[in-house]
């Protein structure tokens, strides 16, 4: 469950004598067990019916039954066209990969930020700050943002992927319609078996919130609707007269926003793990100061190079990756507005002679590691051969012992039969 490991780590270092306030939006069995474990003789305050899942009645819920990604993206564009320009919208996906892909797709059309577990705290705070200020009206997130985030004036929530359980659905749509405001929630459901198992509990939640039910959803759940309960899905997708969030003005504003909160390029995952060996040729950002750049070794980039032509033809541009951050020339690093910092090392072929000692040392270490691995492989091979020989010898011994045992048993049977025949002859 969610943050249970982190909660346990915090409780483990707290004193036994303490005062604890435990807040939860839902009251499932897993949360109930945690509360009884961490609290002693608590006073319980309940708001509403805690034994059932209830959605906010101020949220208008729309459910779209789709048959593939193409139809899902088409309806997503219709939703953006129907919303007023600049409306704060949260899009939830199930996986981090899908969040990144959707963010790359919508980046230049609307202006959005991405939050998920692979983003560090600085990136999350930057994206959330841009979302609160309205600089990026759309935030794409996994369930890491489904709880605990309170942003005023969120107009809509879009469940791009249906959550893995129905409780997360309540948490997700609860990001809008807060403090008496009105909100809209759009949910995509795949007509395949993966999402159809949630159709019946979703209908129960919508009926308690006095929402209309799409006929396709009722058919998926095998539920008959009363007259007047059917929802008109097309009515919630009427395009805005000014073009909505996909108007020319909104797209022009989105094109001026950097592609990420910290850099103009997606951050390099290998660099974050300390394993990027591409240096100046890496097309992704290395840290908060830029990175990437043009073809090595002359067009900037690397660790903090910034733009494609950052530090070109200069000392840092030629040998250490980019230095300038978007402008050309060795002195760009000295200009405060150009930013940049130093770049990652360029390929060895383009380095000057003072790198020779280090390269020779690296090659020597590589050869020693190769020899060590070769010795390990030979030792393992000899061990396997010895084990297989011993195993074969033991098999032969067991086979021989088994054969001898069968011979002895056969001899005993023969002697026993001979004694019986002799006794019968004497009796006759």
List keywords for this structure.
41% helix; 428 residues; single chain; 6-stranded parallel sheet; alpha/beta
Short account of what is shown:
This protein is α/β, with parallel strands linked by helices.
Write structural notes for this entry.
The protein has 428 residues and is α/β, with parallel strands linked by helices. The chain has four domains: 51 residues, no CATH class; 197 residues, P-loop containing nucleotide triphosphate hydrolases (Rossmann fold), CATH 3.40.50; 81 residues, no CATH class; 64 residues. A six-stranded parallel beta sheet has the order 1-6-5-2-4-3, sandwiched between helices. It starts with a helix and ends with a helix. About 17% of the residues have low confidence.
At CATH level 3, the topology of the largest domain is: Rossmann fold
How many domains? 4
Low-confidence stretches: 260-264, 288-355
- Briefly, what CATH class of the largest domain? Alpha Beta
Give the CATH architecture of the largest domain.
3-Layer(aba) Sandwich
Provide the CATH superfamily of the largest domain.
Answer: P-loop containing nucleotide triphosphate hydrolases
Write the SSE topology.
Blueprint: H1 4-12, H2 29-38, E1 59-66, H3 69-82, E2 88-92, H4 96-106, E3 112-115, H5 121-133, E4 138-141, E5 154-159, H6 166-173, E6 183-190, H7 193-196, H8 199-208, H9 215-221, H10 248-255, H11 269-272, H12 315-319, H13 356-427
Parallel strand pairs: 1-6, 2-4, 2-5, 3-4, 5-6
